[in-house]
UniProtKB/TrEMBL annotation:
Superkingdom, taxonomy of origin: Bacteria
Protein's recorded name: Uncharacterized protein (DUF952 family)
Lineage: Bacteria, Bacillati, Actinomycetota, Actinomycetes, Streptosporangiales
A Pfam family the protein falls into: DUF952
Length: 105
């Protein structure tokens, strides 16, 4: 089982140098949000992309994450109709099993 996270390619590249990824969502860090927003599957990731990243022109990537050993909590955000996985703590780059280009169109 894996979970997914939408990231700016530049943020992911910077994380590879430090060994951990600390961006929660568009324009917010882990420290600001308290967790990293993730998606349970590709359908959820595509829904999030359309809702929050449709106007983005910078390159995006979709991180495939092995949640083993990570503090993942499934929570339903206010106004949502389903639960999303949230990662409490930084994402070690070693937990990312694949990286895909992710388009907003």
């Amino acid at each position: 089982m894996t979970i997914l996270h939408i990231a700016y390619a530049a943020d992911w590249n910077a994380a590879q140098e430090s060994g951990e990824y600390r961006i929660s969502t568009r324009g917010r860090t882990l420290e600001q949000e308290g967790f990293i927003h993730c998606s349970a599957d590709r359908r959820q990731a595509d829904t999030v992309t359309q809702a929050f990243y449709a106007d983005v022109t910078d390159p995006l990537v979709l991180l495939e994450i092995d949640p083993t050993g990570l503090d993942i909590r499934y929570e339903t955000p206010e106004g949502a109709h389903e639960a999303f996985p949230h990662l409490y703590g930084p994402l070690p780059t070693t937990s990312v099993t694949a990286v895909y280009e992710h388009n907003t169109r």
